[in-house]
Amino acid sequence: MKFGKVDHPEIIDFTLPKDHPDTAAVLNGTKGTDRLNISVGCAKWNRQELKNFYPRGTKDELAYYSSQFNSIELNATFYRIFPAEQYQKWYDKTPEDFRFFPKISRDISHLRRLNDAAFPIVDRYLEVTANLKEKLGTIFLQMHDNFGPKNWDRVVRFVEYWPKEFPLAIEFRHTDWFNDEKVSQELYHLLEENNMANILVDTAGRRDMLHMRLTNNEAFVRYVGANHPTDYERLNDWIARLDQWKSQGLQNIHFFVHQNMEVESPLLSASFIDKLNKKWGTDLHIPKSLEDSYGKLF
Q1: Which of 1, 66, 134, 266 could form a cystine bridge with 53, CB 3.0-4.6 A?
Q2: Would the pLDDT of 238 be above 90?
Q3: Which sequence spans correspond to the domains of the chain?
Q4: Is 171 helix (H, G, I), strand (E, B) or coil?
Q5: Among 286, 256, 262, 268, which Cα is nearest to 99's?
């Protein structure tokens, strides 16, 4: 992920902002059971990008990846709508507790830009995506960074059209969604009323996307490492913030790791899992193929 990339990450203040004042109220108002639902993974299982992750001789990358991580942020679905048979293959290759978090097709977000012509494509997208059945996690919509608040009516119509049986998270990138308090409040309330997650993006060059406003009982975090030693240190702040939200009632954590150059995403994910296990006593699996490298780093 090159979005938010900077040439000198060492000069960036990576401190997480304070919570939006309404986040605690949202969490307190959506408390349920004490059961935590935690998904941690990478954005892809492509061997070329993550060649150091797979043991020599690995023939099926998804089958191996899903034996090591419990989820994937499925970016491939942004570029095309796959046939139903492909989703069934993905389903069959993965364990019972594995979850896919697919990105909505760019035909909907970037080409049609949520206009009325996008709705038939939404129907087609969901028809095939539903083949993931119980392994389908939250679907996420990522809007272009030139899609601003002047398109508010399109957002409202899309949210109203979206079938509520499919969990949805949305990522807005245009700065005016967050710089104008009236606009941001209207957006947050729309998502909150429709039980949709507001995606938090932690990337070096766009610190404004860390608005720290949850709109339902889900922290959907897209963490972007800068290929810098601070990539690991930054995870400590996320552990602390998630622990705070957990004490306020957070139950659903979906944390996906990217890098500007996907070299150590699995290691960063493993580091995050290890920190969670130590903090909360959870037993999330740390990938076996990373144990030697992980032990050297930590």
Answers
A1: 266
A2: yes
A3: 9-297
A4: strand
A5: 256
Helix ranges, the chain (H): 23-29, 61-68, 84-93, 106, 119-129, 152-161, 176-179, 181-193, 230-248, 265-280, 291-297
Decide if domain 9-297 falls under CATH 3.20.20.410: yes
Can you tell me the distance from the alpha carbon of 265 to that of 271, in angstroms, rounded to the nearest whole number? 10
What's the pLDDT band for 293 if we cut at 50, 70, 90?
low
Query: Which residues on adjacent β-strands are paired with residue 253?
Result: 38, 219
The amino acid that residue 94 corresponds to is T
The better pLDDT of the pair 44, 218 is held by 218
Write the CA distances from 104 to 42, 101, 181, integer angstroms: 17, 10, 27
CB of 141 closer than 8 Å to CB of 170:
yes
Predicted local distance difference test score (pLDDT) of residue 290: 61
**How far apart are alpha carbons 181 and 192 in whole angstroms?**
16
Q: Contact 77/104 with Cβ under 8 angstroms?
A: yes
Q: Count of CB atoms within 10 A of residue 80's CB?
A: 11
| Distance in angstroms (rounded) separating the CA atoms of residues 160 and 31 | 25
